Amino acid sequence: MHIERRTPQNTAIVIVDPVSDYAGRFRSHSVEENVNVTVALVKTALGFGLPLVVTAMSADGPGGTLYRRVAEALGDHPVVRRLRCFDAFDDAGFEKVVRETGVKHLVIAGLLTEGSVLQTTLGALRRDYTVSLVLDAGAGESEVQHQAAVARLTKLGVIPVTWLSLATELQRSYQYVETVDAFYDLLSQSPIFAHTSTTRPTHHDLTGQPASIVEMRLAHDVHRLASRVLADSATRPDAPAAALRQVRDFLVTTLRHHHMSEDEQLWPLVTSLVPATAEALEALTEEHELLEAALTELKKAEINDGPRHSSFAEVAARVLTWFIATSSARSGFCSRSSGSTSRCSSGSSSSTSCAAPTPRLRCT
Ligand SMILES: [Fe+2]
Predict the structure, then answer these.
(1) 185: Cβ–Cβ under 8 A, 6 or more apart, which residues?
(2) Between 129 and which of 98, 112, 124, 150 could a Cys-Cys bridge form, CB atoms 3.0 to 4.6 Å apart?
């Protein structure tokens, strides 16, 4: 049996609608998993040099806002904007970009499985592409919807794959040194690792740490967990409205207090001790301001028993997305440790490690 091996010469990756607008609309996978795996897929394409085609609706309309971490991973890689069509091949610009990759096999992923992903995959089959569908880089409104779409497509010859199985096939062996660094980088940022490190209180060795560091760590873990509980429960009609309101009020009140204390008290103190941290801390304050709009909406959202307003689930998902986006590398105030390296313990974001002379921020 001839089984073609996936290579950058014969395969392109197509990601359909990796947008935060849909974060409150699916339950087959968690938002974190969807973001993490999509980022991993982008890095797989860029790291192994596969043609990558990303499409989303128009940037200023619904369905147009990319997940922030996906946008960061893409950098200046172009996004093919399309209007309205679920089958992206109905957009002439998209069809042309895919045709120009010159490959006949597409690895397709995105949102939602039973929506634009299904229609775009059918569009690809009608044009005689062969297709692999990345099951863990997509999601459906429900598990049934996701699986029904997958079953329909696999009956038509679509090959089910996962992000890691694709990366492993591309790398083949550790002996291929040209790409092994990219492969190691992918493994070190495995979505499951990212999932556990961003949403669960992990065991930190806080022995001997000052109480302020321990308390800061605890505050971040609690906020992350509360945002996840709220986003998950917001989509469940059986979750009591009173309990949802309680979690919502707790999250909004304590987050606001926490960020205010950082912006107004902690950052000025740190800046007065280590002036070079000013720029990085200002960036953290800007992140806090970005979240504030979502918190205001969340606070105003109506929460009733029974079927939920989708706007409540959407804004709860947006708050969770903020945590995911800002937790790929946690940060906070830096305290100088031995040598020229400083480490941080707080919890907004910045993606670098601390090294003199410019203090840079990273999670411990
Ligand atoms: Fe913080």
Answers:
(1) 43, 47
(2) 124
Are the CB atoms for 302 and 216 separated by under 8 Å? no
Q: Over the stretch 244-263, which tens digit does the pLDDT of each residue have?
A: 999 999 999 999 999 999 99
Question: What tokens does 18 get?
Answer: 């990796």
- Residue 271 φ/ψ region, left for φ over 0, alpha for ψ in the -120 to 50 degree band, beta for the rest: alpha
- Degrees to nearest 5, angle at CA 108 with 319 and 52: 85
Domain boundaries, the chain: 11-194, 204-344
**pLDDT tens per residue, range 270-300:** 999 999 999 989 989 998 998 898 899 999 9
**Residue 134 has what pLDDT?**
97
Residue 304 has pLDDT above 70, yes or no: yes
275 C-alpha vs ligand 1 centroid, how far in Å? Answer: 19
- Overall fold of domain 11-194: Rossmann fold (3.40.50)
Range with top average pLDDT, 179-183, 346-350, 360-364: 179-183
Other C-beta atoms within 10 Å of 257: how many? Answer: 11
CA of 64 from ligand 1 middle (Å) equals: 29
Give the DSSP H or E segment for 280. Answer: helix 278-300
Ligand 1 mean position, distance from CA 223 (Å) = 9
Q: How far apart are CA 276 and CA 358, in angstroms?
A: 6
Tokens of 54: 């990303």
Q: Cα 275 from chain centroid?
A: 32
Among residues 355, 347, 310, the alpha carbon closest in space to that of 23 is found at 310
Q: Is the pLDDT score of 185 beyond 80?
A: no
Q: Name the band, by pLDDT with cuts 50, 70 and 90, for residue 54.
A: very high
Give the 3-state secondary structure of residue 132. strand
Q: What is the pTM of this model?
A: 0.58
Phi, psi angles (nearest 5°) of residue 72: -65, -45
Could you tell me the distance, in angstroms and rounded to a whole number, from the CA of residue 304 to the centre of ligand 1? 31
β-pairing verdict for 334-336 and 342-344:
antiparallel
